[in-house]
Amino acid sequence: MKAAGETPSGFADKALYYLAAILVGVATGLIGTALHLAVDRALTWPAVLRAHVGLDGPHFLLLTAAVSAALVLAAVWLVRTFVPEAGGSGVQEVEGAMEGRRTIRWSRVLPVKFVGGLLSLGSGLVLGREGPTIHMGASVAQAAAQGFKLPTMESRGLLAAGAAAGLAAAFSAPLASVLFVIEETRRQFPYSLKTYTGVMIASVVSVVVLELLAGSRPFMAMTVPDLQLSFLPAFVLLGLLLGVAGVVFNRCLIWALDMALALGRRTSFYLLPAVVGCAIGVLLVVQPEATQGGDMLALTLVRENLPLATIAIVVLVRFVMTLASYATGVPGGIFAPILALATALGLLFALCLELVAPLPAGAPSALAVAAMGGLFSSTIRAPLVGVVLIAELTGAYTMLLPTLVTCMLANLVADALGGRPIYEVLLERTLRLAGETPSSARPAANVALPIGGWDQR
Asked: What is the pLDDT of residues 331-373, one digit of tens each?
């Protein structure tokens, strides 16, 4: 039904755009679900090897190290050879494309991001599947925008819809995905009723496809009891600490990328991925909690009541391996690793509090849930997304107020310390490596690295 005063051509334009958003949601949901299921299956390879080869002890560790390194190197080769911008998360590439400074070469990004993401995530690297699904969703949107011959602003709006659909497919979190566009791409998103509605349509459709194929459930379902308001100061302190942790994480991540780039230029760009792959292959056997994206790890840590020293080791190892994994330049996101690291930090904080005074029942799990939102807020700098994403991921809606307090304070502290959104910093770095200064006065210039070039994410 047409709005009052709307011309037939205006109604047809909206209908066409919404149809494009539906198709983007369907395609992204299918691709994202396929990647999710394929990665889950691929990560069983250590168990398959153990069952079918007659090796044990050091010999088996050498075999898993070799397999993991081979998978990582294959992913690096794909990225370096065919589409350098497919390395890393891809969120900054989407933001750059919405600014008109980057080009999404969808016909190359889609296959390389899927296969490369399957290889890198299947190797056990500490990376998340949301990076590949967001970039692939935007690639689907780019193809649709070209096919429907949409004007520039509507095309950029559809890119945001594809990215939101990709995040929704990764985490089954449609509301957080819509909010992600509002908070994270607020500088680039061409806001209008049409583009905003397109984002909602694509996100909802993507989740519908995901749930039809993979079932309906929170990806990190946790049961957290209600806590008294008198315990709220603990979340205040947690937010303050996570604000500092987020700034440290972001700066260390950029440092790791710079060091990896310098090392690659001096030696070989395949040296670091080979070393990290070998280390991951060993850790998959001897310390599996130090590997993979970490969504299941978060649930395990909350359930197992591990001692303080063990949790501290998990925090340290996850921090180092997240930096090392992302620095390899393979396709993979940082959302999931941040959430797992934050869970461990929240539990570590709870155990430290318990040394001073007894905690109410359920407090450690509550602090772990709030910590996920807090670290997300101080690194990504999207606190509202952090609150809603954690609620949708865990189903712990009783934690809305404590998580909101934690996220708000973490964001404020990060801002006070001069912390910046990690994807904004990554985009500036990408533009600088591509030869364009981030402050350039040419916002409409499309920049893409040459085939075979190297773009450390």
From this structure: 999 989 999 999 999 999 999 999 998 888 889 999 999 999 9
Measure CA of the first residue to CA of the last residue in the chain; give whole Å: 46
Q: What are phi and psi of 392, to 5 degrees?
A: -70, -35
Q: pLDDT (tens digit, 9 = 90+) per residue, 372-427? A: 999 999 999 999 999 999 999 888 888 899 999 999 999 999 999 999 999 999 99
**204 vs 24, 175, 176, 186, 396, CA distance in Å?**
11, 8, 11, 20, 21
Mean pLDDT (the chain) is 89
Burial class (CB in 10 A: 0-12, 13-18, 19+), 373: buried
Positive or negative, the Cα torsion across 294, 299, 303, 307? positive
Q: What is the DSSP string of 315-357?
A: HHHHHHHHHHHHHT--B-BSHHHHHHHHHHHHHHHHHHHHHHS
3-class DSSP assignment, residue 443? coil
Token representation of residue 298 = 């978060």
Q: Is residue 241 within 8 Å of residue 418, measured between CB atoms? A: no
pLDDT one-digit tens code per residue, 191-208 = 899 999 999 999 999 999
Structural domains in the chain, sorted by start: 9-219 (1.10.3080.10), 229-430 (1.10.3080.10)
- Bridge partners, 102 (sequence order): 447
SS (H, E, C) 109-128: HHHHHHHHHHHHHHCCCCCE
Contact at 8 Å (CB) between 314 and 329?
no
358/360 Cα distance (integer angstroms): 7
pTM as predicted: 0.91
- The C-alpha angle with vertex 352 and arms to 347 and 355, in degrees rounded to 5, equals 130
- CA-to-CA distance for 176 and 162, rounded, in angstroms? 14
Closest CA to 375 of 272, 244, 276, 287: 244
